[in-house]
């Protein structure tokens, strides 16, 4: 959460910083701010609300400079106020932007207050500004002052610092939060992610845990945690500008829903090209790591956790291996019993979700050596901490509500299940060929499901005035009901809950009346008859049913029962196809309610706090 960007150049960097902050807004949108060094003055503009409001203020004030830092905030310590907005300044001389959480900020605040520092905000970040200033005043140069300050901090941070006495440098540091340096021609940049600086450069260095770096116009020096100069590889980013633009769409969520056929086919390209499942899909030493695996433990949060739940069904039924799926924030704080021959799979779109990262570290500390990450962001923290990785190729996902990341995670996890099955002698050549064929046809089926949009839009008008909704599913489609409910509550703010359909009669049925729309995922599988019985239970209590079923199921509309037919049942990959309608439903209900679809209230895309 929170995005940071910085630039040092021979030109005015304010437009670069503003553009960068707009691209980082998905990380938080409570407030935005800039600090620049302009002709011997440290100038700052901050506004609560969106970057565009801060941009207007910066324009009004004629802000222009060749060195500056910017921030977009998701509030943690301190409310959404201008005083709490970054950058934070110490004694009018030194400015800091920060992503992360400083855990020992109370102790440091007390110490700095004793040393004469007055605090203007409730943030943990202001501690960093004063601490660097304190060390600067002890005679350290800016780099050494930042290095001394971060040694005294515990917690997670990515920071960028500029100071009045240092008009030709910026110092940055990271621990636990992403930060990369962009290399230009006589200009250099820093950002939380490459999208923020892609218009200026594609050449980037991903800073490592504990790194600090000094940026001047002519160069970048990186130092490791031990303070010694360090060599870091220069990567050339292949993120496309088009993937960061809306194009003909109204919202990123809409664009990302419609990108799913392409995202899925990109993600499974290697499987289709090889015409086989195999450990090499997960990294060079995958055969060695996966050999002897006797079970799977999946750790993730939010939508990624629901992808894990689907995978649990697949892994047990296809590979015949026990699989447990757990919410990362729960696992990391319990006395888990490790199983050394279990593969720990973390799933994360961003690759930087703190709870998932910490759960992975905890699993490793318990002795789990076999680790696999399913991730959408190359070089992010979670895959870097894992022995094996499968990158989903969804492209940049900017809408806060996860859509294409989820369906690409599912195809990646299906590949995991099939590969484990093959390694355990449970995938005969005919079944392997059938599964690959199913994957090959999947983008087409997803496209057919997308074509249902007009019918789903018609339903959304009926949902928009509702206060609550229930989602039901059974078996491998129960997690899709969970995902549908999460999408709806996340972007439309309608209270929605999901249950396994068979569980309804054990309590939630008491909620059902004529005002409660009940969405049912009812594919034409072996559980359809069971689901139909559960639907009768709803109808008998006056509940209105909105059913997504398959074209080949003999199930039609009746009074109080609305039906939309997805394409013919696609077998084992059916949960992926059935995800599309619930995404579209949430999107269109949110549109009808006039909410901010891409930036729902109180949320942010990357959750790098507990
Ligand atoms: O980046 P991650 O996949 O680790 O994120 C996990 C969740 O924060 C994320 O899926 C969240 O639930 C989405 N906003 C749901 O749409």
SSE blueprint and pairings:
Elements: E1 3-8, H1 14-24, E2 31-38, E3 41-48, H2 51-60, E4 67-73, E5 88-90, E6 94-102, H3 105-114, H4 125-137, H5 142-151, E7 155-163, E8 166-175, E9 180-183, E10 188-191, E11 203-206, E12 212-215, E13 220-223, E14 235-236, H6 241-244, H7 252-258, H8 260-267, H9 269-274, H10 286-290, E15 295-300, H11 302-319, E16 323-327, H12 328-331, E17 342-348, H13 354-365, E18 371-375, H14 381-384, E19 388-391, H15 404-423, H16 429-450, H17 453-463, E20 468-473, H18 478-492, E21 495-500, E22 517-522, H19 528-540, E23 544-550, E24 561-566, H20 574-593
Parallel strand pairs: 15-16, 15-17, 17-18, 18-19, 20-21, 20-22, 22-23, 23-24
Antiparallel strand pairs: 1-4, 1-10, 2-3, 2-4, 5-6, 6-7, 7-8, 8-12, 9-10, 9-11, 11-14, 12-13
User: What ligands can be seen in this structure?
Assistant: 5-amino-5-deoxy-1-O-phosphono-D-mannitol
Report the biggest beta sheet as strand number plus sense, adding barrel if it closes.
Answer: 8 strands, antiparallel
| CATH architecture classification name of the largest domain | 4-Layer Sandwich
CATH class of the largest domain: Alpha Beta
Total domains, how many? 3
The unreliable regions are none
Tally of helical segments: 20
């Amino acid at each position: 959460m929170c995005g940071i960007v910085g630039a040092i150049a021979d030109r005015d960097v304010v437009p670069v910083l503003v553009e960068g902050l707009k691209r980082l807004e998905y990380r938080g949108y409570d407030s935005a701010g800039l600090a620049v060094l302009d002709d011997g003055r440290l100038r700052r503009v901050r506004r609560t609300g969106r970057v565009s409001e801060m941009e207007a203020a910066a324009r009004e004030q004629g802000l222009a400079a060749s060195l500056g830092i910017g921030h977009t905030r998701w509030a943690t310590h301190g409310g959404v106020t201008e005083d709490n907005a970054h950058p934070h300044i110490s004694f009018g001389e030194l400015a800091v932007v920060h992503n992360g959480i400083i855990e020992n900020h109370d102790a440091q605040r007390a110490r700095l207050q004793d040393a004469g520092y007055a605090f203007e905000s409730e943030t943990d970040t202001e501690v960093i500004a004063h601490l660097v200033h304190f060390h600067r005043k002890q005679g350290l140069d800016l780099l050494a002052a930042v290095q001394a300050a971060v040694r005294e901090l515990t917690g997670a941070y990515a920071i960028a610092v500029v100071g009045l006495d240092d008009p030709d440098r910026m110092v940055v540091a990271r621990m636990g939060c992403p930060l990369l340096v962009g290399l230009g021609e006589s200009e250099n940049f820093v950002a939380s992610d490459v999208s923020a600086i892609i218009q200026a450069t594609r050449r980037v260095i991903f800073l490592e845990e504990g790194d600090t770096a000094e940026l001047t116009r002519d160069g970048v020096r990186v130092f490791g945690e031990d303070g010694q100069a360090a060599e870091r590889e220069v990567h050339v980013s292949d993120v496309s500008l088009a993937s960061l633009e809306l194009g003909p769409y109204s919202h990123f969520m809409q664009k990302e829903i419609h990108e799913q056929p392409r995202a899925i086919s990109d993600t499974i390209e290697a499987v289709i090209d090889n015409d086989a499942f195999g450990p090499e899909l997960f990294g060079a030493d995958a055969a060695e790591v996966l050999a002897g695996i006797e079970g799977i433990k999946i750790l993730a949060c939010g939508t990624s956790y629901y992808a894990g739940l689907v995978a649990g069904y697949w892994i047990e039924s296809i590979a015949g291996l026990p699989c447990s799926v757990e919410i990362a924030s729960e696992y990391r704080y319990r006395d888990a019993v490790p199983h050394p021959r279990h593969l720990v799979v973390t799933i994360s779109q961003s690759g930087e979700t703190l709870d998932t990262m910490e759960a992975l570290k905890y699993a490793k500390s318990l002795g789990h050596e076999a680790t696999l990450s399913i991730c959408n962001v190359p070089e992010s923290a979670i895959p870097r901490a894992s022995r094996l990785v499968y990158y989903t190729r969804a492209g940049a996902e900017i809408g806060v509500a996860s859509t294409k990341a989820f369906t690409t995670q599912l195809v990646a996890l299906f590949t995991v299940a099939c590969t484990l099955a093959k390694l355990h002698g449970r995938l005969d050549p005919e079944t392997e060929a059938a599964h690959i064929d199913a994957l090959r046809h999947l983008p087409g089926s997803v496209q057919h499901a997308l074509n249902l949009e007009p019918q789903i839009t018609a339903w959304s008008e009926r949902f928009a005035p509702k206060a609550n909704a229930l989602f039901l599913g059974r078996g491998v489609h129960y997690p899709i009901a969970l995902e549908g409910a999460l999408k709806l509550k996340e972007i439309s703010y309608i209270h929605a809950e999901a249950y396994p359909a068979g569980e309804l009669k054990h309590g939630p049925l008491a909620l059902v009346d004529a005002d409660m729309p009940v969405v049912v995922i009812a594919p034409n599988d072996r559980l359809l008859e069971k689901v139909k019985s559960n639907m009768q239970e709803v109808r008998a209590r006056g509940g209105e049913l909105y059913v997504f079923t398959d074209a080949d199921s003999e199930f039609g509309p009746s009074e109080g029962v609305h039906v939309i037919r997805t394409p013919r049942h696609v077998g084992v990959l059916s949960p992926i196809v059935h995800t599309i309608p619930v995404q579209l439903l949430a999107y269109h209900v949110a549109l009808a309610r006039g909410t901010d679809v891409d930036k729902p209230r109180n949320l942010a895309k990357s959750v790098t706090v507990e």
